[in-house]
């Protein structure tokens, strides 16, 4: 798995350099947790934009108490390679001004789970009271693949700098097995969301302006 992630990272970065257009730095909040993304983007066919990037996972201590989505906000890296992931996105601008767009996004991660669990420790038969204790356990690592679609918009700040935001929904597929896990399942499908905000720099803005003037 380490070799696969390294190979994919090299491929992910080498492809955009062949037709380098934009560089983005953004914050990402999604079903598994939070991350910081470094993204390379290329516009083609006027209305389409392909983005590939490397994301850095951020372990989250506070976790929602939600039994229906067992892995929501519980991704927690412990080893160096578990902090890294890949991000792929295809956007289609819906207006000529290139502000509103629809997108499809895929994120790939390989990381563990941090889970807060309530354990029964003692039952007082006299007073009929059950006592519990809270434990924090770590499982995995597991393979995470999030697929979302949604809408976003861009706002120009400077001639070569703009702010981008997007919101989408979809599902997340988690695969793996840990003998210590409370469940024997190896595959999970859970509803997912993504909120992404970031700054993008148009690296070839001067070249584009020259071509329009010709």
Topology readout:
Elements: H1 2-17, E1 22-30, E2 34-44, E3 48-58, E4 84-93, E5 100-124, E6 129-156, E7 161-175, E8 187-202, H2 205-213
Residue share in β-strands: over 45%
Sequence of secondary-structure elements: HEEEEEEEEH
Low-confidence stretches: 207-214
**CATH architecture grouping:** Beta Barrel
- What structural class is derived from the secondary structure elements? mainly beta
Q: Looking at the structure, what is the overall shape? A: elongated
CATH class: Mainly Beta
Q: How many β strands by DSSP? A: 8
Report, as a whole number of angstroms, the end-to-end distance.
50 Å
* Average of per-residue pLDDT values: 81
- Count of helical stretches: 2
Helix content: 10-25%
* Strand arrangement across the biggest beta sheet: 1-2-3-4-5-6-7-8
- Structural Rg: 21 Å
Looking at this protein, list some descriptive labels:
single chain, 8 strands, mainly beta, 2 helices, disordered C terminus, 214 residues, eight-stranded antiparallel β-barrel, Porin
Verbal overview:
By secondary structure, this protein is mostly beta strands. The protein has a single domain, classed as Porin, CATH 2.40.160. Helix content is 12%, strand content 58%. It has helices at 2-17, 205-213; strands at 22-30, 34-44, 48-58, 84-93, 100-124, 129-156, 161-175, 187-202. The protein has an eight-stranded antiparallel barrel with strand order 1-2-3-4-5-6-7-8. The longest helix has 16 residues, at 2-17. The relative contact order is 0.18.
